[in-house]
Amino acid sequence: MSRTISVKAQIEILASPTVVRSVFLGFDRYQQWQQGWDIRPADSGKKPLELKSGDKIRVSMHGMVFNPEVITNDPECFTWEGSIPWIVKGRHYFSFSPSKENPGGTTFIQSEDYSGGFVTLFGSWIKTDQPNQNWNAFNEALKKEAERRTSSS
Domain residues for 125? Predict the structure, then answer.
């Protein structure tokens, strides 16, 4: 029987979802505002806004490199899916929602649904209430950059 485990990290950003998404999709500027993450379209001629379902991307997170497939790329969500066959499959979401706490702001949620043999066998040891520190660091850096861009415009 297959099991799915979900992990998420959420942050409130005092910038519109449009601004937050623009910063997020500015892959070529990542090194200017955060360290450790690099995302690139596999097709170097394609811009991040042009990525669609089925397109491949190259992702490096603190030295871990993988080549997931884009599932969605719309104003509300950017999603990719990657796997190690028979071991684990992960669907990673970045959502940009209007904030209910801060009018004009964004609730940014980064989450992942994990499934596969590894999760079925060892899922009870995965801490779903404690997202990866690297996710939190990325979210904080995204917040800082989006708010900086909002205040300078």
Answer: 4-152
Q: CA-based angle 51:16:151, to the nearest 5?
A: 115
Predicted TM-score (pTM) of this structure: 0.90
The stretch 106-131 carries a mean pLDDT of 74
pLDDT tens digits, residue range 27-50? 999 999 999 999 999 999 999 999
C-alpha of 119 from chain center:
20
- Nearest-angstrom CA–CA distance, 126 and 124: 6
As a dihedral over the C-alpha atoms of residue 61, residue 56, residue 72, residue 99, rounded to 10 degrees, the angle is 20
Of residues 25 and 1, more confidently modeled: 25
**CB neighbour list of residue 44: distance below 8 Å, 6 or more residues apart:** none
Place of tokens 């992702």: 59
CATH number of 69's domain: 3.30.530.20
> For the chain, what is the domain count?
1
